Amino acid sequence: MDDTEDTIAAGLEKVFWSRGFADPSVPELRAGVGVSMRTLYRYFPSKEAMVLGALEYRHRRYLKYVREGVSEPGLAAAEQLFDKLGGWMRMTDGKECFFRQALAANPDSTDIESTVKRHKGELLAFFGELSDNTSFASSLYLLHEGVTACYAEMGETAVEDAKRAVRRMFKETNETKYS
Fold first, then answer.
1. CB 110 within 8 Å of CB 100
2. pTM passes above 0.85
3. Which residues neighbour 77 within 8 Å (Cβ) at sequence distance 6 or greater?
4. DSSP label at 97?
5. Do 144 and 85 contact (CB within 8 A), yes or no?
């Protein structure tokens, strides 16, 4: 994305985050982004393209956020993931997953479905790297998605419960390895 496209995608992300994916019309999206209709359509020629642009922007932003300052792979890094997730959830008012919201509002879009799957797949791969144990990737993914889904109701309790589960996972693996 070039700078203008990136700026527009960031604005689209904000509008979709605050208004949802089904509600805002293209003129409302244009107004929320603060560009002309011509400029908006030059970079994102349809509402679906606008959703995809916002998803791509969010994807890059989230992966950068969870990767920043992470310890060497292992238990500490896996715990940091959930500290980072808690911080993200606080920044985003504890709303559920942006990607799942986009897919729910656009269930017939194969491009949006593909983008959501790619995002989730990259998270899964990252979780395997982060834990230094690819067999932990799916468990970390399940915990991550669970915290994201229930943070609005449970808050930091969900984060702390996930970290306890991670510690148990690492402990059981180490006990099995040395027994």
1. no
2. yes
3. 70, 71, 130, 131, 132
4. P
5. yes
